[in-house]
Records
---
Amino acid sequence: MSRSLVQPVGQKRLTNVAVVRLKKHGNRFEIACYKNKVLSWRSGVEKDLDEVLQSHTVYSNVVKGVLAKSKDLKTAFGMDDQTKICLEILEKGELQVAGKERESQLSNQFRDIATIVMQKTINPETQRPYTISMIERLMHEIHFAVDPHSNSKKQALDVIKELQKHFPIKRSPMRLRLTLPQEKFNSLEEKLTEWKIIIVSKDESGSQLSIVCEMDPGLFRDCDTLVRNLQGRSEILAISVHGEGDIHADHYDGHDDVSSSEPKKLTEPVAQLTENMQKQTLAPKTENTESQVKQSKCSTCDAVVGDAKQYREHFKSDWHKHNLKRKTRQLPPLSAEECSADVEISDSKGDLNEYSF
């Protein structure tokens, strides 16, 4: 029975490496790097080139171990210095990643974009932000695809513009403090009315007038330029204001209402999703919800000790420790007052014993 003859391979095969590839003058040049070191080098964290490159060698194919020809290097780079060429490829080349790593990066960036969209938008009806899961579902509905070479914030702004075409969503207003001379206020007030900016409060201090207002973020640059021309200054108090948290937004008269004709343009699944979103949005807080705090009960002390924080602190108290000792002796628990009296009696007995000796 014939067997195939196995010849030795005269190539140095590199595996489990990070490959940086650069195409120049019709040729492909690659370098072999250590994983997770390329980004550190580009961000300036890693300074030692030997910690980044596995070898100061330029390849035409790292996986197969094929070295780049000296003639091609001189044609593309004008030199054959391997180290300098490696530096240029490291700076300008494209990092090649495996399929699973690429999926993980895209998934993380998709999540980052959804988070930015959530932070910058609100529901115009409730003045509250949507949840992160809702934003991700809407992004899937509009078939959004992540661009790994583009900034996450820029993509988030594009997503917001696309979502506004189909769903009840708007940019959350930003809160500013505008300070300018009082005699210049009339010129500013006309523009604020034209831009439909909400004035929250006014404060006069000598010849200066301070205004706290809320506006669409897209108007910030124009407003800041106008205030500077009026010899004033602007200060950002909050980038995103909504009806949740410490800063409460008022009802806005100038927000863009969603026309009744738009839902007719949506397909049935999208319209149903929008209806589900409205059901899942957070309802405004009432006075009763704040007072209704979940109470916790300690079985050892047989008493209600308050909310979760007070419940944890209760376990460190002398009252709980004293009842725990009584429980091991199969004695009934004592109240807080009875526990204090029992401890005082025990201390008094201890003092008398010490005095008798």
---
Amino acid sequence: MNPGGAYTRDSRYLATRITADGRDGFPVEAGRYRLVVSRACPWASRAVIVRRLLGLERALPMAVAGPTHDERSWTFDLDPGGRDPVLGIERLQEAYLARDPDYDRGVTVPAIVDVTTGKVVSNDFARITIDMSLEWSAHHRSGAPALYPPALRDEIDAVNEAVYRDVNNGVYRAGFAGSQKAYEAAHERLFARLDLLSDRLRESRYLVGGTVTEADVRLFTTLVRFDAVYHGHFKCNRRKLSEMPVLWAYARDLFQTPGFGDTVDFDHIKRHYYVVHRDINPTGIVPAGPDLSNWLEPHDRAALGGTPFGRATPPGPVAPEEAVPGAHNPLAA
């Protein structure tokens, strides 16, 4: 938080890429890397969804950190003994310091760690999911969807840029604003963009084209957190998502699509924001609500045409070891 005004995100990411040709020194290899995420984090949740949609679970195994952290790092407190069973570390910070002993930037998720060295390769969340589509294609499941098709990339990029600026990061700019003026500017910009997105989605089932793309993944991870966290905790309270009919139906449509809602852990989401952000919520009390059952209500979006995957197929059932507990997600109840 900036006590004097507007919130600015630290965007100094490790931009090394894992590519099919290994041009950065890190070739795509099944099983060589570990995707470290927290289900609480919207940026990491993008990677969880894309990995599942593309069927990369075996090629790119996943480590799930706990929903809370201190000033040092995300921790592996969900694992036996508090250590990731593959990397053998208690804190994600250890993998960052293995890469650079003088590392002084954010210890963020998602992060991809090279298991052979224990070093973080990349935490560039925007690039990670694009590379899953383009560079990891040899390991996609049969029937995997094209989330970043060549003919639509310019439009997807344009939508993503606006959504990131005003929505994905916009909720943080409101929540972490250090002045009334900065908060009101961020709040106004956020809801102006949500209104534009409602207009766009009024007659179109998805943001770009007739199937799910990278753009839908990026918007969904903010919308699914909106009523549970951003409306109250970040003071984005002009309207709840459930009070915005088009976006609410769109979000439910995606939530009920295999690969989206089945990755969401509402308990982790709420515990992260309300416990970690003590400057905003000093008591650390986690709200009991909202009711989650309405995520399963009919959405009637199919009448707009289009299908989630077009000629592709939905992903299969979630592997038992990656399933979200039923108490944390109405799909798993």
